[in-house]
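Q&A log
Question type: sequence-to-structure
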Amino acid sequence: MGLLDSFEKGLERAVNGAFAKTFRSGIQPVEIASALRREMDTKAAVVSRERILAPNSFEVRLSPADAERMQGLGRSLDDELRDIVHAHATAQGYSFSGPLAIEIHAAEGISTGTIDVLSSSAEGRVSWQAVLDINGRRHAITRARTVIGRGSDADITVADSGTSRRHVEILWDGERGMVRDLGSTNGSRLDGQKVKQAGLVDGQTITIGRTNIVFRVVATASPRAESLPDQGDATQIIDAFHGGRR
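Response status: OK
Response body:
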């Protein structure tokens, strides 16, 4: 964080504290949502392979009066805050290492109108799962080689006349992804550029016909399987494409 950022954040805390003491207006739900977003942005960390891990456990500490008001809103506030945090994580490309948890507690010493957020990530090793977002549905990659097309023999079938029966395949060896066009009639695009084969990173979009396929790599708290069907074959192909480099 730069000196200017530190100064601005310090000034923000000072101003918020001064106004809270002067007006004692109390906290509004939108302020809690903003505080949670700031905490995620501050604590988000690049882990590897362009993946960003954000905290998944949050404790919101408020004055006793503010906490009582917020807790009086019940489950609806909890649901709204969870939706906002999930939406912000998606927009920023953040991943969680476990289930999302947000708790609101009263804390002595916290002034009315002031928010203190503590956050942490789940303990343990993070496992990564490749998924494909297609037409509003998420498909988990359960094989090392996944064929997509309009044919019934494809692993994922798309109702798009502009695609071939077996249009593209997605390779995943548990760590790295790759896309390969299978000699389709209309070709394939990766982030708008024509492609025969290419490595994949989180967030890239593959277009076949009129169908967009978003490749995602998400964190999961569940242990990763020892191997995927055809994983050795996929690893060899990906190694060859990258020249043997990992």
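Response note: The longest helix spans residues 3-23.
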